[in-house]
Amino acid sequence: MNRPSPSRPVVLCLSGHDPSGGAGLQADIEALLAQGCHAAPTVTALTVQDTVDVSDFRVLDRDWVLAQANKVITDMPVAAVKLGMLGSVEMVETVLELMQQLPGVPLVCDPVLRAGGGGSLGKDDVGYAMRERLFPVAAIATPNLPEARILAELPEGTADQCAERLLPHIRHLLITGGHGDEADIHNRLYGRDGSRHDFTCQRLPGSYHGSGCTLASALAGRLAQGQELRSAVQTALDYTWRTLRDAEQPGLGQYVPRRLPLDFCS
Predict the structure, then answer these.
(1) DSSP string, 215-246
(2) Is 71 helix (H, G, I), strand (E, B) or coil?
């Protein structure tokens, strides 16, 4: 049977479920809709969390994750893959098995290792497995600076120092700012070829739940649409900043990005 040609590019998302709706797969779906893409979500983990912090998580059985994703891969032409929370080394290996079926498809890796409130979303060895095993097959990874320090094993490293340590493992690296006290946010795109581009934006007040998921999904959506990587990064960063500017506080903790306009369905 010939595959249909969908009007919207399909992005396979592998991430965790956040019952607060601020991060995880719901963030992926909303951000990808905003890029004109169709999101195909595969659940990798269930979490117990709210807009304040995460208190527990459970990684799904490998066979269940493979079954979910394989149904999508055999049914739809996947144009990009976005990774969020994996939670275990076994899940890293699961993703590698899936990517063998998708040669040439760009993989955007959001290394979710900590929740915004500081709670762990993976075992200590997951970061190492991602760096050594997943990064070589990814088009780009999008860690914030605390995540980059974990991945680079440089607890006090600067963005430049972390990039130097990580670029032998991956072609492109976007280290996002906002975790210091600088007046403006500096997001830095590094290439293994030595290229570097800085993207600066105005710091917004407050803290946000799901900003990293939003950025990585928007970037995957732009790549699925065929946009060149540097331009796709700029578009995704601009979109994410607007979602934070218009964010709401539905609970007792962090603000949640408004990824879709309120009149989206009207």
Answers:
(1) HHHHHHHHHHTT--HHHHHHHHHHHHHHHHHT
(2) helix
SS3 40: strand
**Residue type for 62, please?**
R
Its pTM stands at 0.94
Distance from chain centroid for Cα 179 = 17
pLDDT at position 135 over 60: yes
Strand order of the β-sheet with 107-109 is 54-59, 38-49, 10-17, 78-83, 107-109, 140-141, 172-175, 184-191, 196-202
Locate 247 and state its tokens: 């964010």
Q: In the prediction, which pLDDT does 70 show?
A: 98
Give the rounded percent of residues in the chain with a pLDDT score beyond 90. 85
Alpha-carbon span 44 to 195, nearest angstrom: 34
- Calpha distance 241→203 (Å, rounded): 9
